[in-house]
C-alpha cells in the first residue's frame, strides 16, 4: 500500500481515535494489550525519563530478526548501545556530512532533475513516489557501503534486484505483526511456505548482495578509511562480517523510505500553494546572491542552513504527514504515565506522531493548515520540543540521520526550484 493510500484509509480512524482524548487503552487480545498515546508528557516519559523501561522488546526483535539480525534498529541494551556509540560519533563528523552532500548533489543533478525535465518536456506523468524512493535508495546505499545500485537512471540491473528484494523483505517482515494468531508465521516458516518462503528468498538476495561487498571491503581494510558507514564500522571494532551486515541493513532500512515519503508529501502540498513556492524561491535567490553563487552551483552545508524558510516548510510537511506515523515500545515493568494511565509489564505502548501533528492542544486552532510560518520566530527557525513533534523520535534513541535527511531534502528541493527571481507564482513550470 502506498503512503497516500495508507493515509486515506487510516486517517479518519486516527483522527477519531486520538484528537478528542489523547490516551487510550486497547485490550482486544489479552496477549497484545496496549496503550496508545498522543500526549507530549507521556511521550517524554516513554522516550526519555523512563527510557530503560520501554525497549523495543522481545516481540519486535524476534519478528524482525531474520531480516535485521541484531542491527541498531533491532536491538536493545548493550548491543544497541555499542552501535549507537560508534554511529553517533560518525554521524557528527564533518566528513560524513560532506560525503552525503556530495553524493546527493551528484545524484540530484545527474539523475533526478533530468528525469523531471524530460517528463516536463514530453508531458509524461511521473509516479513521484516511485522516483523518489529509487532516488533515496541509491543515496542510502552510497552512505551505507559506498555502492551505487543505480536504481534511478543508472543501469540498475543488480541494484534493482537488491532494491526489490529489500522492499519485499521489509514488507513481509512487518506483515508478521499482522497475524491474528501470532505464532502462525513460525509454522509457515518451518514448512517454508507462502509468504515465509518469499520472505526467506528475498532475505537471501539481500544478504548475498551485502555479504559480497562486506567481504571485499574487509579484505581491503584499514589502509583506506572510506567515508561510508560500513568502512567506519570496520575501522573501529573487531566486528564479524555478519554483525557488519546487520548494521548496514539497519541503516538502509532507516534511511530508505523516510526521506522519500517526506519529499513526496512536500511536493504534493506545495503543488497547490503558489504563495509558498514563491517565498521559497525568494529565499533561494537571496541566499544565492548573498553567497555570490551561480545558478545551479553546489552549496556548502552552512549555506544550506541559511535556507530557513525552506527548512520550516519541510518540517511543516512532516508535521502533517510524518514518515513514521506511529511507533511502538514494549513495557518492561508496571508503570504509571504522567497523565495517570496505568501500563502493565509486557503491554505495548504506542505514541502517535500523526495524531499529534493534528492536535489543537499542541498546534493551535489552525493545526490542520499547512503554514511554514509557524516554525519561524524572530526571523529564524524555531526549535520545537521533540516530545511535541516526535517525527524523528526523541531521547536517547532519537533518529541519527535527522541532519542528513534535511541535507538530502534541501538539496533536492533547491535543485528542483532553480533560483530565478519572480518565477514562482506566475509560472506553472516551477518544478522544471
Ligand atoms: C525524513 C527522514 C527521517 C525520519 C522522519 C526519520 C525518523 C526516525 C524515527 C521515528 C526513528 C525511531 C524509529 C524506532 O523507534 O525504531 C528513527 C531512527 C533512526 N533513524 Fe531516522 N528518520 C529519517 C531519516 C533517516 C536517515 C536518512 C538515516 C540515515 C541513515 C536515519 C537513521 C536512523 C537510525 C540509525 C535510527 C535508529 C536510532 C536508534 O535506534 O538508536 N534516519 N528515525
From TrEMBL:
<dbReference type="GO" id="GO:0004497">
    <property type="term" value="F:monooxygenase activity"/>
</dbReference>
<comment type="similarity">
    <text>Belongs to the cytochrome P450 family.</text>
</comment>
<dbReference type="GO" id="GO:0005506">
    <property type="term" value="F:iron ion binding"/>
</dbReference>
<feature type="binding site" description="axial binding residue">
    <location>
        <position position="399"/>
    </location>
    <ligand>
        <name>heme</name>
    </ligand>
</feature>
<keyword id="KW-0408">Iron</keyword>
<dbReference type="InterPro" id="IPR002401">
    <property type="entry name" value="Cyt_P450_E_grp-I"/>
</dbReference>
<dbReference type="InterPro" id="IPR017972">
    <property type="entry name" value="Cyt_P450_CS"/>
</dbReference>
<dbReference type="GO" id="GO:0016705">
    <property type="term" value="F:oxidoreductase activity, acting on paired donors, with incorporation or reduction of molecular oxygen"/>
</dbReference>
<dbReference type="InterPro" id="IPR036396">
    <property type="entry name" value="Cyt_P450_sf"/>
</dbReference>
<dbReference type="GO" id="GO:0006629">
    <property type="term" value="P:lipid metabolic process"/>
</dbReference>
<dbReference type="Pfam" id="PF00067">
    <property type="entry name" value="p450"/>
</dbReference>
<protein>
    <recommendedName>
        <fullName>Cytochrome P450</fullName>
    </recommendedName>
</protein>
<keyword id="KW-0349">Heme</keyword>
<keyword id="KW-0503">Monooxygenase</keyword>
<keyword id="KW-0479">Metal-binding</keyword>
<keyword id="KW-0560">Oxidoreductase</keyword>
<dbReference type="InterPro" id="IPR001128">
    <property type="entry name" value="Cyt_P450"/>
</dbReference>
<dbReference type="GO" id="GO:0020037">
    <property type="term" value="F:heme binding"/>
</dbReference>
